[in-house]
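Shipment paperwork, digital attachment
Item: protein structure file
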Amino acid sequence: MKISERTQPWVGILLIAAVATVLGQISSGARTEETAYLTLIGNFSEAALHTGFYALWGIYTYRRVNHRGVRDCLTVSVILIILWFSVRTVKYEIVPQATICSSLCWYSYYVATILLPLMSFLAADFIGKDEEMPLPGRMKMLICAGLFLTAVVMTNNLHDLVFRFSDGMKYHEGHYTYGPLFPAVIAWEIGFSIAALLVLMKKCRTLSSSPARFLPLLPVAALILYGFLYVTDISLVKPWLGDMTAFSCMMVIMIWESCFTVGLVQTNMGYDRFFQISTLKAQIADENHSVLLRSLNTGPVDSSLLEKADSGKVNVGNGIFLCSAPVSGGYCYWEQDLSQLTRLKEQLAGIHETLEEYHDLVCEETRQKKKRKKLEETERLYALVRRETSAEFDCIKRMLASLEDEADIGQARSRLYEISVLGAYLKRMVNMVFLADGGRFVDAGELKLCISESIQSIRLAGAEGIVRANENGSMPVETAMHFYRFFEDLIWQAVHSLRNIYCSYEKQREGYMFCMVLDCGQTELSLPAAESKQAGLERDEDGTWYAWMFSVDFFRKTKKDTGSAGDKEEIR
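Attachment content:
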């Protein structure tokens, strides 16, 4: 029959108690020359048995306790228990009685009896706290107080504050009385023992309403009863339960083991039970596929399916798959329920199909909107271009119509020349309209390109022209269109008589100024009616025409500063 993890320490305690009882019976008899070696063997065997068991229990406890602080305190407790029992063995079996060595061994008992309750209290206090949290200052003070009290007991031969001996009986343990500090030692031991138990039961959350949490009180009650019987008549208990040291050490271990059993201290035991009651549908099998452990909600599975699952998932029906993973000494199998995922996948497939249809509709709607937007934009730009250049387009249309009936070559060439001049203007003006639609400003050199292309067209008739401008920076696109329209109006008036032309424009303090010099013989020029307030036109005695135009901002600022719009000579 397999022994569970929680039962193994109790079995060890009972075996140790039984063997120790037998050895105690052997060593408790009267010593004679014939039985002396048996008594000595029994005592040392009992000591080795206890010490080995305490060491094994300490190692086992170190492996199963999770919290580092609790683990360290219990490790120190085991060391103190081993020290206590070892000193007891040395005192009674090796060191002569009534000597300073036996006296020091006796005092050494109190190293364990003082520090063991303190370590138990510290272990209880660590429960539920962060492992990385440093030891509080008050706990350090308690450790210092415990070490001080231990030092006082160990140095009793110097001050007699704990034990007092009769004259000449300094090292005789049977002839002493208690000093003033002995009650403090007893109060320390009892107080911290009770405090450790109270803290443990207070911090227990899993058994807050269960009587099982009082299980650690049973070893305490046994220890109190043993102490009463020990004081009353030691012959009643020592042969069967051992002396005070052996019984106390065993009870300390039983107290902590009780805490582990009822869950007062968290350990990494009971994984088999946890596996059984878990919601996982899993089982553990050996290398021969014999099931060793199975959760309660998992039914039996045929070994052939287990063997197939070693190489991959096995579909057992209804969307449930049997999975496998190798573990130490065998395999772990679990059922993976994918039925909900399968249904969800089917739903998602339907949703995906619906979304694809909706996506196609949205894409088609978007394409129609883009197409409609493009048509609207084309119509808007066409209307904008038509508004700015309708007169020129109509003029070109009439001239092209007249060319079909024109028989005179000279007149035809004259019409083609006029069409070329208007065509260059239309090309650049349309481009300017597009630029105006994209933003308020345009590069200052754009106007120079427009004028240069128009000058190229008038060179077909032998005229020459030049344009100079500062191309750095930008200018309002409305101003550029205004200047170019003004330039074209004057050019068109002298289209057949123009011989030379000079143009320039520059940025002034308050805006832009555009100037033209035209040599067109006797041709009369006039300002467009819409430009009469912003432009000027004069002719000198040689017949050369001078024209200028200001941007609207420049004109308004100049008019405000001069007080008169007629001071054109000063402005020029």
